[in-house]
Amino acid sequence: MPIYEYVCQQCDHRFDRLWPTAAAAEGQQLVCPGCEGTDTRRAVSQVTVLGALGGLTPQEQSAAGAESARRQSFTPKEEIQTLQANKQKKREQGR
Ligand SMILES: [Zn+2]
To answer: Which residues surround ligand 1, an ion (CB under 5 A)?
Structure first.
């Protein structure tokens, strides 16, 4: 499972996300956890693939799987929609 590092173009915040497959990460636009901006880019040079190290014990693999499940509970598309809805509300309140 690949972990990709992302960099926010607005505040330079770096964060990473674990994906079930490399293909799942394609075309995904993530929300920056720092400034909630959507102008994030994948830092391609920082790819790590779990299991590629070859020495993971079953316990470690289990821990990695739990971490993966935890991260996947955040759906990027839903995050973006929620944030956009919140921004829309703020705009409406500002008028
Ligand atoms: Zn940011």
So the answer is: 8, 10-11, 13, 32, 34-35, 37
